[in-house]
Amino acid sequence: MRLTLGPLQYFWPRExxxxxxxxxxxxxxDVFYLGETVCSKRRELRTRDWMMLAEELAGxxxxxVLSTLALLEAESELSSLMRLVGDGRxxxxxxxxxxxxxxxxxxxxFIGGPTLNVYNHETxxxxxxxxxxxxxxxxxxxxxxxxxxxxxxxxLPELEIAAWGRLPLAFSxxxxxxxxxxxxxxxxxxRCLDYPDGLPLATRDGTPFLTINxxxxxxxxxxxxxxxxxxxxxxxxxxxxxxxxxKGMSDVVARFRDAIDNDIIPLRAGEENGYWSGRAGxxxxxxx
Length: 288
Hints:
single chain, 8-stranded parallel β-barrel, 4-stranded antiparallel beta sheet
């Protein structure tokens, strides 16, 4: 079972991004996903910068994957996607069907991101025919969907699941962060930079509810599938995705690496795991 560092979901200053990944090069991670998946206005790093970082990290011997936007809204974003796909040096995580189409046209194998909406085995079969080699399960998917896949007889790709982090629940053309600050989306002032782990959203009685991250909405708390490691192995999960966070990420990686290498069940650190069991995501279901 391999560990992956998922794409950075938040908007950090350029130097913070480079410092984070240069530190991460020393972590026991097997796969790095690089690139902007949330908002094309986040231009602290441009395509050439991500490619430079990819080449630097590839020198450490790890697998490098370039991740695409989950929501494309403009011709300029499509042009950037075409440049990313056309580069050809690294595998691509396709997070929408326009990326799948471009990759299929070029006959390139790809990784299906969690926003491709693969809800049944027929969709999986079609994507396999298009060149899907690895599927990152949607955040609300877990053991029940894997069981359906296996029962269908469709050849399974590598399976990856988000094992740690605030889960991305939805994307919208509207910028939630700008709206929360009473700003127009086109005049947001890049205020996401002020919230390196997203902007917490609570109910009127103060209960944590969601996290706002630009045009993305996330869970309020961290999902943690560490205590389910043995179940994940039995289900055929090949890779565990850990989503980057501003602080304590090296400790998160070390916790999962130690559990995998020493075949131990780590103590609960996050607050949610419900999706894995087909329950409400914000629940924590005791492993059996």
